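Task: complex structure prediction.
Instruction: return structure tokens for all chains below.
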Amino acid sequence: MSEQYPALIVITPLLAALLVSAAGWLRPRLCFPLALAGLGAAAAAATGLLVQVLATGPVTYRLGGWEPPWGIAYYVDNLNAVVAALVAWVALFNLVASYRAVMTDYPEKIGPYYTLYVLAVTGMLGMVVTGDAFNLYVLLEITSLTGYALIGLGGGRAPLASLNYLFLGTIGASFYLLGVGYLYIVTGSLNMADLAKLLTPLYGSLALLAAFAITLVGLWMKMAFFPLHAWLPNAYGFAPAPTASLLAPLMTKVMVYVMIRIMISVFTVEFVLQEVLVGQLVVWLAVAAMVAGALFALGQRDLKRMLAYIVVAEVGYMVGGAWLGNRLGMTGAVLHLINDAVMTFCVFLAAGCIYQKTRGTSFEDLRGLFKKMPWTMAALAAGAMAIIGVPPTGGFFSKWYLIRGGLEAGHWGFVGALLFSSLINVVLFFRVFEIAFFEPSGGDDSHGGHGGHEEHGGAVALAEAPLSMLLPLMAAALGLIALGLATGPLVQKLILPIIPAGLG
Amino acid sequence: MEEYIPLLLTKYNYWVYITLMMIGLWAMIAKNNLVKKIVGMNIFQTAIILFYVSIGAKYGGTIPIIQHGPGHGHGAAQIKALAYINPLPHVLMLTAIVVSVATLGVALALVIKIHRRHRTLEEDEILEQLRES
Amino acid sequence: MLHSITPLLAVLASLAAVPFIILLKGRPNAREAVTFIAAGIKLILVASLLPAVLAGGEVEFTLAKVLPGAPLALRVDAFGLLFALVSSSLWIVTSAYSIGYMRGLDEHSQTRYFCFFAVALSATIGVAFSANLFTMYLFYEMLSLATYPLVTHHQDAEARSSGRKYLFYIMGASIALALPAMIITYQQTGTLAFSPTGILAGKVSPVMAGVLLFMFVFGFAKAGIIPVHSWLPAAMVAPTPVSALLHAVAVVKVGVFSILRIITGIYGVDLLKGLDLGMAVAWVAAFTIIVASLIALSQDGLKRRLAFSTIGQLSYIVLGLALLSPKGMTGGALHIAMHAFGKITLFMCAGAIFVATGKKNISQMTGIGKRMPWTMAAFLVGSLSVIGLPPTGGFISKWYLALGCLQAGSVALLVVLLVSSLLNAAYFLPIVYRAYFKPPVEAAWAEGRNEGPAAAWVPPLVTAACSLVLFFYPQPFLRLAQMAVAQLFGG
Amino acid sequence: MKALALAIVVLVGGLLVSATVDFPDWADPNSPASRHVSPRYIEKTMEETSVPNIVTAVLADYRGYDTMFETAVVFTAGVACFLLLRRREPRPGPSRVYRHRATGVIVEMNRVPDKEPSPDVFKRIDDDWTPHDLIVMNVCRLLIPFIQLFALYVIAHGHHSPGGGFQGGVILGASVILMALSWDLRTAMLRMKETATGLMSAMGVFIYAGVGALALALGGNFLDYAALSPLLRVDPVAARSLGIFFVEVGVGLAVMATMVLIYKNLASEGRLDQGL
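Output:
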């Protein structure tokens, strides 16, 4: 069985999605358990694969039994094994947390909702494990389409935001497709490993540079890298809460993974460092992303939108780290990819819990929440600490490596931007905490409205989110600390082996 | 100037696709009506499909269906790759066509939802409404 | 080198109390019992490390290898144990005092208060026992965050703005200055472990060394060096036990202790001497001492005056360390303990007065000696200790500091010390004088002794008594300080 | 906006044009794409899968995994349209009008009935679309069976001629849509109920993935149809050919159902009662 893990990672959720869809028509009550089983199996397979890859080295899996480059093959090394496990587990936890939210908000559409949810995860997992450049496009589109629908389901401005996302996302995906086409036309191959071999003699050709540029711009659009980020804040800000906490942590991270994969496995670091002369420019763009993301976030008066802009800044961290052109930066980028998925999940899920109870996430809705929802707020605080970069949460360590990478590259702008964005994050989150801590909750007439000291003594009823949301949230919050403490083995065993030797 | 003429003639497939693609891109960015943007998106995607399909062409090649009739491997030795055009881009583009249709479907569904709420599909009017509210 | 889990247990003892405190929310007596038990266990655990350290050993424990060369590790040496002993023993006294104060004022959210107090203590001991700069930074930040809800306990507008100021200085400085300085240090040396000879020697250029040093000194803003001091007076909005333990002992001393570690563990005496950086820091500290003392003179709010006094006194410690002479460093380390006992007495007295009479300002306290003779007696002892007069512990540390100045050959700094002692006397003794020898401003005070709840005025008496005892028997603190310094100067 | 658009278009276009210098000429038989990877498909397909239509063989076998997700994309689009648009609440209106099919008696109901009368007995006639055209209706009714037959041929004959699951599925779906266009949506819905449509689209993909999973269960890799040969009692090459046929059927089913599902939801804004 273990040699089939790579296939199972993708098949089990796919089959589950189909069963969920059927159940949606016949027995809606079965949808959630089926989805749970499918993603649970995927998470188990992903974990098994990770263990296997760590034990025996990279795994190649031939779909249909055809050897690459004629057939499609998976190529799984440490990098995608860990990202796959991450995606599967975060999606599973979020699924558990989404149960109550979907039940309350979309009771009639449980079936299609979970179908698309599981399909989105399938697509992401497929993108992560695949070793075929074109296959990646198909899976990318699955994830994107499900994403458009899951976001567009939200009320208010969500459909418009989703349509904008669709336009930009389609341009991005098409650029990627075109880039793959360019690679195909100069090599005749679509398999990543094969491409890497065939491309080496072509370094220096204009077509190759164009292919690289187009592919990257396409991916940047998908990951909302500044200045191509315009779709993200609205899309994630207006998305239904369970959608936001699925896509915000995972989608951008998977795209960053794809970028790193393209950079190190299709093209090589030698190409990226020597042929592409705009590396510095990209890092400066990343700097702009961090600064702009942080400043835009400051202008928001809604928790979810604020978090969405933070995602924009975080993308800057990872892209910048990957483009610094040294081992430390790349290590930091990969480590941050892992940590950021968990911390973004944690804060977006906390926002989801808040929405579940207060039916809003604007700053006015947050008043008095430390009294009403202490556990949720504690988890939000943990996520905030990770985003700010306070040890021992994982966020500190990835920032640590990123800053060291910046120092080694002598890129002071990058270092400065990282610190600046950390400081702004302090302001951002403590602004939220101040509102939740100092301002009495508005709805409560017997206590609120008078100001002064007295109402603090009054007992505000505890109105915590349901346990099915709290437990995943707590798991995410604790996961952040666990990830931080596990940084040593993570870097030594997982990340360092996959950093290409060509990086200085 | 003269050295560019063969370039123009031998690579005209690329000029066509780039022109089409830019038309689509222009429409997506500059057009105000959401449905026109979707039309632009379709042109954009179709241009890429055209590009891929044109890769597959070979002088002297016919459609990629083996012409010896059905059989289990008999006479396979006579099949020459040069006689048939490259099937792979066609396969890939079948996928891309399906993707573009699916995207179109979802986009139209979103447009209907937007129309339900804003009663218009002109982007500036929608933004106007959003500013007012 | 001894490997033992005791340091970790000592750190975790108070953290482990947190779930119980939350669980026993509805039963205040049981809840406070948990605090006491945890405090007791913690003190026992810390004290149990004493024999090994006094024998010249160090106790080590590695928790997780997170970064190569900078694991999450604890190591107990003489400096650390000195600080840990002070904090953990004073936690017991403060816990008793907290009960008196919080219940006496019928404060809200006491469970939260005791929870975060326990977390803050864990972080303090963690800083004391850190084996490297990274571990210390971790606990330092943990302390910053755990203290925020304590500082803003009242949840009103004033608390909000003070909390903001607190965060701005503490978090801002640590992220913007200390963190990059730490990373640069790591980048240059590949390690962050504290070593008696320092790790930076030969690895950085003189200019870089200077820049880094000041990034550290100002980055650890808890030490309250001017200009990163103004969070401390603002933090006085906190309930008094918080001010007493955290802002006279734990938090501020963590800042000073961090600087101590930087000077002794990262730079090393030789490097600083070679680059003449010690004197630079010493003069920054001297400036802080004088300016803070002058500001203290003009403060009417008792707690604010104490806060500025604290800022000055913290710089004594920094000054002592920066002298880089054996006596001076001994004095600096010793002052951590002596000032702690003196200043906590003063803060607890201020709190006791507030609980009993509701007065916060010095001008309203004229004649209060009639009403609260024991409290004011404790206040007197505390003042003497902070001024540095016999027969109190403060005298010993100041004596060493003065000797250190001479040893370092800087008469000017000695003058600064003496001037500031005079200023100290000038802002403390009038309070005592007014309390005992001027007619009461409030008629009710003349009626007789009424010192409020015993839990509020007995603890300051205890710490005052400690201050007196420490004059005659300054062990084990003096021994620890001497041992630590001896190690620095090579046996 | 226009200036920005122009700048982007010129920039991207310039980049794309500049890259073409290194590209092979049109229809160059010696281009890398014609010499690497693809020759094997052309030369070995008959031998390995016994499918003369190379496109079908590559589509459903060599790169069958792509195609499975391609089908999943179609399915996703169907579910997405349903999720976004479908509304259960009836269209607000004063009354509903039914004609008793047998007698021609017209009944008007002032209140929305809790349960729709059986459509076999009563026909709802309050629709506001164009009047039915007898010729169009009957010509279409006549044509639809032939269209569907042709669609089945396209699916089944995809091994030997241009065609296959996608093409056949689209034609099948179009036949149902033609029904909805020439008659009305409700009549089409009677022939193909919403639940059935939804189930069929899921089932189509399920057949595809199921065949692949079956191969996995029989000891092969995922989608390795050769592993099915013991089950089908044929040699591995024939098993591949048959496997391709099975998945094509699945594709056809999924595409047909999804086409219909998308059409219904788009045409009626998700109410599925009236519309085009």
